[in-house]
Amino acid sequence: MTSEKSPLAGSLDDDDYPAYTMGRAAEMLGTTPAFLRTLGEARLITPLRSSGGHRRYSRYQLRIAARARELVDGGTPVEAACRIIALEDQLEEALRLNEEMTRHRAGS
To answer: Is 53 helix (H, G, I), strand (E, B) or coil?
Structure first.
């Protein structure tokens, strides 16, 4: 066996690589393709398109869809679930930036 890396190795490790078809993504999440289309219409996730025009999802997008399904399964309307997830994402980014700025100030 050679120590050379496969040209696909980077893609397989990339959370943003659109590796999953809509059917496979729905199966993995235990949901329907219609649910994934609804999340796309709400602009929570925007799947990339294959050369044939088929939706393709990344692992990152599947994690977001799984969070949306969790909220919807708990009784939250889809639109509200999408807003909650967007706000959670904004909060996480704000906390990350705050921590980065605090570390920068401490190092000055």
So the answer is: coil
- If pLDDT is split at 50, 70 and 90, which confidence band does 9 have? low
* Distance in angstroms (rounded) separating the CA atoms of residues 24 and 10: 21
The CA distances from residue 88 to 42, 69, 70, 75, in Å, are 16, 15, 14, 18
Q: With respect to residue 4, please indicate whether it lies within any of the assigned structural domains.
A: no
CATH of the domain at 82: 1.10.1660.10
Please count the structural domains in the chain: 1
Does the global pTM surpass 0.85?
A: no
CA angle 86, 68, 24 (to 5 degrees): 120
